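User: Some background: our group keeps a shared notebook of sequences we're curious about, and every so often someone picks one and asks for a predicted structure to add to the entry. Today it's my turn. The entry only has the sequence so far, pasted here. Could you supply the structure so I can complete it?
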Amino acid sequence: MSKIGLILCIVFGGLSSKAAEKPNVVFILSDDQSWDDYGFMGHPHLKTPNLDQLAGEGLLYERGYTTAAICRPSLASIVTGLYPHQTAVRGNRPFMGEDVDHRQLRRNKKLWPLAQEQSKTMTATLANAPSMVKQLQENGYATLQTGKWWEGDPLDHGFDEGFGHAIGRKTMEPIHHFVDKAQKKAQPFFIWYAVFLPHTPHNAPDRHYLKYKDLAPNESTARYWANIAWLDETCGQLVDHLKEKNHYDNTLFVFTADNGWRPDPNQVSWYVRSKKEPVEAGVRTPIFLTHKNKITPRRDKQTLASNIDIAPTILQACGIEPDKAMSGLDLRNPEVIAQRDRIFVDVYWDNIRVDALGDLDNDLIARVVIDGWNKLIVRPKSKELYNLKNDPDDRRDISRQDPDKVQELSALIDDWLEDTPIIFPLSP
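Assistant: Of course. Here's the predicted structure to add to the notebook entry:
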């Protein structure tokens, strides 16, 4: 071998070895899915074979929770490792008036420009916040955003490339191209796979819908289940591609949902008592981590996990020290997680008053603490206490029977707010 050839061999061999030392990361986000609507969570009818296999090969927390009951603040928490009241990303969009249909703002030529400006104010609060994506990029990771992303241009938030809502529903090709490019550069990669499923529209192909048409109690549920099967199919395609490219063994998969969903039996693509609410159907989600030969498969039925833990977990798995402002823990260590005892949730309205972001109580629906099997929901004018071991769907309020427990858990929420203040400016 020539001297130049030997040098190139050493250089590129060193790069490959260095890349191999760092795991690839695939973050999978289910969008609007109830915590028990998975095969691996024991659903009697739903089939999710690909997610079942992935979860079975990893560490599964059955009692995981989101930090919010709607998408945008939940996703912001996953990226920053902060709670919604800290990031000031508390809702999905700015409030533009009582009589405004906020879902139709794009069609309102008068209000839409103003809504965009106010939305930028919300996004700007993340400019100086921690970001696992930016930290990964700064440490040599190739980073790809696919599917749902609320905070403006993903390239401004640590992603090298971004691809919208067509991913999964129409194509997986952008992921294939991205993986190939990272492989050629001997770069470890991070994929944000927020496939926008089973989120509405519940319009899965008939190959999925027909499986549930006569099995579900109503059309709304059948179409929702079909979208879940569609999500599972795309996850299988993603995993299979990484196996074909020999990346599976060196890839950490992290799975969670942004918030829950219970289909309205009377209206397709609508929900009841779940999304936007502090109930279990709105904020509970399974969380699992799978990394072959690195994480021992295990099912944890008791330990409380939170989406607030995802950013520090991914960073530490990649050998990166998380930003000090991140208060979450490393989910790879269930014994350490179990010592925490409790987790917290913020729930604000989906349309929030941007001019009142400095007021933590403005637009608040509820704050929640889950302490062991006790759950307290603190609303602006009431408090509800539940024992989740006996009442897993939080239907029976026992606050009157145990006022001492209400007081104890209320104090925990007060302490939590004091320990997690707004620490980033509300404007650029």
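Suggested note for the entry: The radius of gyration is 22 Å. The chain is about 35% helix and 20% strand.
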